[in-house]
Amino acid sequence: MNAQAIIRSLEAEQMKPQLPELHVGDTVKVNVKIREGGKERVQSYEGTIISMRHGGINRTITVRRVFQGIGVERVFLVHSPRVDSMTVTRRGKVRRAKLYYLRGRIGKATRVKEKIAQKATRKS
Predict the structure, then answer these.
(1) What letter does residue 6 receive in the DSSP assignment?
(2) Which of 1, 7, 5 has its CA nearest to residue 57?
């Protein structure tokens, strides 16, 4: 085995198998393990994905939410052991790969249109 094959096999072991399909514009709920003192607890963070970077084991997402009138962004490594789980609460319909323009918007202007699931077509 060459070095690249060894690295790929090690990365494949670390990747999480059951992750939801994530897209920019989706509203997600990320449960993160936090260690405070000797205790470990799970904290949830819900917001809109404004960017996705890299691929494979190094994939990161930037999640933005507005808390008490202040925009807060957090970057999560998708395959990190600190990320307990991810669920998509709402699918967003956007036409950009990066939603950095939401940083300059206030109030209802920060909303993203919801993608409606297509209904199955009936045969007559």
Answers:
(1) H
(2) 7
Domain-wise residue ranges, the chain: 10-99
Alpha helices in the chain (DSSP H): 3-14
Q: Please report where in the chains the tokens 């009138």 appear, as a residue.
A: 69
Across the beta sheet with 83-90, the strand order is: 70-77, 60-67, 39-53, 27-36, 83-90
Q: List C-alpha distances in Å: 47 to 7, 18, 33, 61, 88.
A: 33, 20, 17, 11, 10
Fold of 10-99: SH3 type barrels. (2.30.30)
% residues pLDDT > 70 (the chain): 94
Asked if 110 and 102 touch (Cβ cutoff 8 Å), the reply is yes
* pLDDT, tens only, 16-61: 888 899 999 999 999 999 999 899 999 999 999 999 998 888 999 9
